[in-house]
């Protein structure tokens, strides 16, 4: 991870909080074979990993390609450095989505996504423990934000509007649930079978 500079504006990471992170998990094992970069981008954007791999046209996924692809798909991307993390107005929390490049082997890095203590790599999910970042040191890290992750409305986007319901003819009156009800007292049953 780059050292960066302490000069310039201090970042507020709170604006990158994701309250409704919606990862796209592809279950087909073949799709995980298109490379960790394609898998990470597909997980974030929903684009097909094979089309991402075809666009990249290499087994290596450089930072520039990853950032450009995310921005083209409507994501805000903030590169993290040692300086802008240490000098930030707010810290990075569990509700932040991070795109990490980590040293996997000698001269080979891998891409993964971190959110809420989970590590997503090639459409597999791992629990992130405290040693993960030491065993696979971070080469580069990015804070990712999308506008749909900020709004966590419980109302379904496909729920019909009141106007649609009224136009369907399904009304309370049609169901017999409106109008005044008579409030006659219940009649006592004084039949001959009753107790004397």
The backbone outline, from C-alpha atoms, is: globular
Note poorly predicted spans.
Answer: none
CATH architecture of the domain at 16-149: Alpha-Beta Complex
| SSE topology string | HHHEHEEEEHEH
Q: Span from first to last CA? A: 94 Å
The chain-level mean pLDDT equals 81
Largest sheet entry: 6 strands, antiparallel
Supply the number of helical segments. Answer: 6
Beta strands, count = 6
User: In CATH terms, what is the fold-level topology of the domain at 16-149?
Assistant: Cathepsin B, Chain A
Explain the layout of strands and helices.
Layout: H1 36-45, H2 49-56, H3 63-72, E1 76-80, H4 82-86, E2 97-105, E3 108-115, E4 118-121, E5 124-127, H5 132-135, E6 138-145, H6 162-167
Antiparallel strand pairs: 1-6, 2-3, 2-6, 3-4, 4-5
Helix pairs in contact: 1-2
Structure overview:
The chain has a domain at 16-149: Cathepsin B, Chain A (Alpha-Beta Complex), CATH 3.90.70. With 196 residues, it is an alpha+beta fold. Strands 1-6-2-3-4-5 form a six-stranded antiparallel β-sheet. A hairpin with a 2-residue loop joins strand 2 and strand 3. The protein contains six helices and six strands. The chain is globular, with a radius of gyration of 28 Å. Helices cover 22% and strands 19% of the residues. The mean pLDDT is 81.
Quick overview:
With 196 residues, this protein is an alpha+beta fold. The chain contains 6 helices and 6 strands.
List its traits.
196 residues
């Amino acid at each position: 991870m780059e050292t960066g500079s302490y000069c310039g504006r201090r970042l507020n990471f709170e604006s990158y909080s994701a309250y409704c992170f919606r990862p796209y998990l592809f279950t087909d094992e073949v799709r995980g074979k298109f490379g960790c970069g394609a898998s990470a981008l597909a997980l974030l954007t929903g684009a097909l990993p094979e089309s991402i791999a075809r666009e990249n046209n290499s087994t290596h996924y450089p930072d520039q390609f990853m950032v450009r692809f995310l921005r083209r798909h409507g994501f805000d991307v903030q590169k993290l450095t040692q300086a802008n993390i240490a000098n930030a107005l707010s810290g990075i929390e569990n509700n932040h989505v991070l795109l990490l490049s980590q040293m996997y082997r000698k001269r080979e890095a891998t891409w993964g996504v971190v959110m809420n203590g989970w590590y997503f790599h090639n459409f597999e999910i791992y629990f992130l423990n405290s040693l993960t970042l030491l065993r696979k040191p971070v080469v580069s890290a990015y804070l990712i934000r999308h506008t749909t992750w900020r709004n966590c409305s419980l109302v379904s986007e496909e729920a019909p509007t009141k106007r649609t319901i009224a136009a369907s003819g399904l009304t309370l009156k049609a169901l017999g649930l409106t109008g005044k009800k008579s409030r006659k007292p219940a009649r006592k049953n004084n039949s001959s079978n009753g107790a004397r």
